[in-house]
């Protein structure tokens, strides 16, 4: 019954506008154009909508001019024409229509129908923003944030974002939250960031939902709460946000929420299909280890390759391991060395150590003790215990480096805490050092303490870097 009443009332509205529009009333022409444009009371017809908008616009009605510009901009009712869009936006903007001013600014920003000019775009955004248009205020804040058409100014960016955010503009709320998260022009404040992420997330902004979920996952600005983290990440993932799929997969793989590894793999696959590099790597790990599915080396290889070719060092290392072991592929030490090298050059300590092993043994590469020692050192200085043990052996025997039993003992001490190999080698080297006297002992202690401080400092820096990441580290290899 209500639908019948609505249809009857809509038809009556149409019948009321039609005679007035045919008599030349611009407001009736505009409203008739809207009915055809939106399919209200009549079947949607963009051609007729364009015709009635043209009639109203030619009579100087600013709002009709803006709508006509939008139709030309989007190719509705006729061929797309950025030039005609700019013409009609310009006429409406000159009359003070804020929506047209914003639209004209967008054309200048993108160089559509007019020469690109960030300065002119900024000017039109400013006029619309001063009239209180929230979307224009957000665009103006982005101009100040990025230095588009005006010098970079974090205080002014934040001021305009805040004006728009208080009107409920979701993207402005997200931008304001990100400024607090990064500390742009203000002291970083995770609690304030979460406040604005929550506002934007409640309005359906997928990126804000993802950031809010990650805040609960990592305890940034709120107490850690995996259940809430999963709930918000699920909302963002429901909007096909690839980062949210990945973040959700990492939580599920860690044992939080329901669905376990099977659901985690599904999340990784969805993100991987969107080109998410670390999701591709994680999918490879799941297939390689049989988590959430049966082990499938061929699919693991496929996903590792996708991530490795986009520069993911962990995937490059994993490919090196597969080729070195012949796991699902023909054993090929030369290809293993190549993938280890790519990862090692990006600072992957495990790849650096394994590449050193290949050079030390002449596997897949020419035997070269100097290069073996070099790569062992690169990994050892990052705190890689096996590389420290390997380097200690090279230094103790003088392979590829100058022989130095004292320095060898230092590396063995550092490696000793990670397993029995370092402790055994430390004992054999210590025997040779017996009776060297207090001076050597003090020098040794100084070297060891300095190396340990360096190792701890590097580990802290890596952890800090990890905490800054938006999506965590995923599955550990």
Write the layout of secondary structure elements.
Layout: H1 2-22, H2 26-38, H3 46-58, H4 62-74, H5 82-94, H6 98-110, H7 118-130, H8 134-146, H9 154-166, H10 170-182, H11 190-202, H12 206-218, H13 226-237, H14 242-253, H15 260-273, H16 277-289, H17 297-309, H18 313-325, H19 333-345, H20 349-361, H21 369-380, H22 385-397, H23 405-416, H24 420-433, H25 438-468
Please give a quick description of this structure.
The chain has 477 residues and is an all-alpha fold.
Describe this structure in words.
The protein has helices spanning 2-22, 26-38, 46-58, 62-74, 82-94, 98-110, 118-130, 134-146, 154-166, 170-182, 190-202, 206-218, 226-237, 242-253, 260-273, 277-289, 297-309, 313-325, 333-345, 349-361, 369-380, 385-397, 405-416, 420-433, 438-468. Helix 8 runs antiparallel to helix 9 (154-166). The protein contains 25 helices and no strands. With 477 residues, it is an all-alpha fold. Helices cover 73% and strands 0% of the residues. The chain is elongated and about 100 Å long.
Strand content: under 5%
Radius of gyration in whole Å, from Cα?
Answer: 32 Å
Biggest sheet overview: none
Helical percentage? over 70%
Tally of contiguous helical segments: 25
Q: Write the element-wise H/E pattern from the N-terminal end onward.
A: HHHHHHHHHHHHHHHHHHHHHHHHH
Tell me, rounded to a whole number, the average pLDDT: 88
Global geometry: elongated
Number of strands: 0
Terminal-residue CA separation: 63 Å
Low-pLDDT runs: 429-438, 462-477
Q: Give the helix/strand class.
A: mainly alpha
